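During the no-cost extension, the postdoctoral fellow (Dr. R.K.) reprocessed legacy sequence entries with the updated structure-token encoder. One reprocessed record is reproduced below for audit purposes.
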Amino acid sequence: MRTWVKICGLTTDEAVDASVEAGADAVGFVLAAGSPRTLQPSAARLLVGRVPSSVETVGVFRGQAVAEVVDLARAAGVATVQLHGDESPGDVATVQAAGFRVIRAVSVDAYADESEEARRGFREDALLIDAVAPGAGAAFDGAPLLAAPPHRDWILAGGLSPETVAARIDELRPAGVDVSSGVESSRGVKDVGLIRAFVAAARAD
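Re-encoded structure tokens follow.
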């Protein structure tokens, strides 16, 4: 099956255009504080306006109140909200009721600690499994996922790059991949050539 690809942490017209032209299925904009990729909603909205309707636009949030998440997502004009934090199933449902798709992002360690009952309770639209330190460009040991893989399609993030993504897809068999630092020339600065190479590598099979 064709691997779903998201390029995250975009901050410039050039990077957005390159991601779309390369064939990314989704593009992400960080709307949480503390990242070199953080955007104000007004800046994100301008970038969202460059994205065709066939490409999913995602606002990325971390540990923010649900009311703030909804307000910022609306201001940015994104279609999907990606939640990194300790959100409850009720929080996910609230964001969905506000009209957004929800990607629930969880570290591989936190996912391993969840019971099946807890996982089913979230009812997120998509599940993303990330490294323990998201955005740091570090890969994680895939053995726990191989031993007990998710019972649903899921998205892999953490330490991916044009050089590693094909092997990680072959190893872990996610439905999709999400990259940010792995397509940067320096922290927070996207490289158009790396974006193109990443999408091509993810679709090499």
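The beta strands are 4-7, 26-30, 56-62, 80-84, 101-107, 126-130, 155-157, 176-179, 184-186, 189-190. The domain at 4-202 is CATH 3.20.20.70 (TIM Barrel). The remaining legacy entries will be reprocessed before the final report is submitted.
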